Amino acid sequence: MSDLERSTGNAVRLEHGVPQPFGANWTGQGTNFALFSANATRVELCLFDASGRVERARLRLPGRTGGIWHGFLPAEFGGPGTLYGYRVHGPYAPREGHRFNPAKLLIDPAALALDGRLLWHPALRGASEHDDGVPDGQDSAPFVPKSRIVEGCFDWRESRAPNVPWRDTIIYELHVKGFTQLHPDVPVRHRGKYLGMIEPAVIDYLNRLGVTTLELMPCQAFFSEEFLIRKGLANYWGYNPIAWYAPAAEYAVQDAVTEFKTMVRGLHEAGFEVILDVVFNHTAEGNEHGPTLSMRGIDNASHYRLVPQRREFYENLSGCGNTVAIDDPATRALVLDCLRYWASEMHVDGFRFDLAPVLGRDRGGYSRHAPLFSALQSDPVLSNLKLIAEPWDVGPGGYQLGNFPNGWSEWNDRYRDTVRAFWRGDVGLLGAFAERFAGSSDLFRGYGRKPTASINYVTAHDGFTLHDLVAYGRRHNEANLENNSDGHQDNLSWNCGVEGPSEDRAILELRRRQMRNLLATLFLSQGVPMLQAGDEFARTQRGNNNAYCQDNPISWVDWSRRETYAALVEFTRALVDLRRSRLWLRRDTFLKGARGTRASRDVTWLHPAGHQLGEHDWNDVSLRCIGVMMAVAPGDPGGELLLVLNNSDESIAFKLPELGADAGWQRRVDTVGVEAATEPDLLRCSEKVEVGPRSLLLLESTSAATS
Questions:
Q1: Per-residue pLDDT at 674 exceeds 50
Q2: Partner of 304 at 20 to 30 A CA spacing, among 8, 180, 253, 388?
Q3: Do 3-148 and 592-703 have matching folds?
Q4: pLDDT tens column, 260-304
Q5: Would you call 390 a catalytic residue per the annotation?
Q6: Which residues does residue 55 pair with via DSSP β-bridges, in sequence order?
Q7: Under a CB-based contact definition with an 8 Å cutoff, are residues 94 and 312 in contact?
Q8: Cβ distance 174 to 216 under 8 Å?
């Protein structure tokens, strides 16, 4: 008799149940369990006490429909809050791709919540170190978090998704913990938590900044790798998932599911969209020497891509040891079901897919017509969400920028690299810079896509912060304990003359100007701008460009810098306001600019001498300054805009274009600082304006009568 039977006085039984949906789903009368395993011979449901330490019952799932095992547990034997796991029986034959071992307690891939911590222990491995075909018999249950049954009821209080059009979207990428961990106006209990994101001080700051869409770094339940734990480090970023449906408990005060929903509800009520950074390319089980925690022990051959003819080894297209087999129909169905759960039950507004080419791979390579993409396009729930690809993985043909389906947007690293190189002072970049500034039509015009397919950014979580981009010429990742060998080597950064901290006023002012240049370029470009949290007040990681393992002040947003760099915050807000006020700056059609009179052109590229750039000018490597004349869109306030960019070390005289009678040009943005300018507010047409070294100047046409 099991412990559960003794406590209830009844024989525990599982009814037949149904094969859908995946996971443990509470119905009010009981819980239906459904688990896919095409190659298992038996699946056992293990129920635990509230501590997660005592296995109270072990019950065989009685139903099987195709490859899905299922059973129904009546409410008298357990309901919401009950902890469980699986033991799956089958062949242990790694050379055939099978790694079943019932001694290993397995996390439900569709668990809605996890309880407890992972404790790294040899029992987590499925076999001996040499993997000689003999499974290890040590019970792993004491060392593995338990899956938890969730009721799912929640009062959304009539909140509605903001549904911000792509053209109006301004993305703010942040880490849930790092954003509020050091915030002085967030109660200590809520710092670093989901609930901290909806504290009044945080909501007020985000509203004043003007961003529309928060892109949250991974919130799916994840584990830190064993090698990091041994070093006293942790996987801070969270790109190491184990339970795709479950929100990470690290960011909860008590109940991760309820608190994540509370966060989304509060952000929606404040007008913000929520995009979730999701990881479906690999799991925390690692390579063939990794632990048996979930899908490896459930059905290794179905869930992972294995090396043909050497099926004991994993294909590693993620760089993290394994690759999820999205081309397997059952695994693909699990991913789609998970996405629907986050959209329908957790109310997120979209997804950013880490290493997204993995999602479109089969044995023939990557295809933009892959089954998962087709399923997303036809799904009545998912097709209406914002879908963003990180368009590269580490496999053959893994760089797929511009090759995702219509309706997707993509992180545009060519924009990042070109803008960085231009403001570093690299020569011969005018053509490339113009293409990126204008929306990257060379990448996205095909298949009926729009400029909004390009997610423009100059910094993100992976790499230097904005401050460090202009303060360091090389990485400084010593704190990662990998001999400074990890992270990108070529960052297209420039330290402005001194590596790292400096007290030289000229160096500090140059760095601030470079940050203003980069921010202004970002918000004035066609496409969708993405700002990394804290860059608006010069967040620093002390030169660490790969802070994935730094769950400490290196990575956390330092809110004290908001006062030090208050002018930069206001500069960023002004740029956001300008972008939101001008339709031309957020077009959903590509620029043409080659026909018609000057007044009818949507864009005109100008030489400092005042004429339009010709073929010779575009190829002139000595030319370091360019003007961009932007037409007035119907409904736009104000006049035409003229943006002048100078990436040289010398001031350049730029001849202003002709306008109508009594018209002139007025400064809107000057990264040198208009307060130091001696020129009159209204500049006459055809006169020359001095554009300072390494600076950006934005002018607006106006009449003398309205100036």
A1: no
A2: 388
A3: yes
A4: 999 999 999 999 999 999 999 999 999 999 999 999 999 999 999
A5: yes
A6: 48
A7: yes
A8: yes
Catalytic residue, candidates 55, 354, 413, 535:
354
Largest CA distance in the chain: 97
Angle (nearest 5°) at CA 243 between 292 and 116? 80
DSSP per residue over 505-551, as a string? Answer: HHHHHHHHHHHHHHHHHHHHSSSEEEEETTGGGT---TT-S-GGG--
CA atoms of 418 and 432, how far apart (whole Å): 7
Q: Express as a percent the part of the chain with pLDDT over 90.
A: 89
Place of tokens 């368009």: 391
The token pair at 642 is 């003229």
> Is residue 649 annotated as a catalytic residue, yes or no?
no
Class of domain 3-148: mainly beta
Say how far apart CA 15 and CA 28 lie, in whole Å.
15
Place of tokens 């799956």: 88
Ranges of each domain in the chain: 3-148, 592-703
Task: Specify which residues 703 forms β-bridges with.
Answer: 663
Give the C-alpha separation, 316 to 307, whole Å.
9
Instruction: Indicate the pTM of the whole model.
Output: 0.96
- Among residues 108, 273, 327, 390, which one is catalytic? 390
Distance between CA atoms of 147 and 125, rounded to whole angstroms?
Answer: 19
The domain made up of 592-703 has a fold known as Immunoglobulin-like (2.60.40)
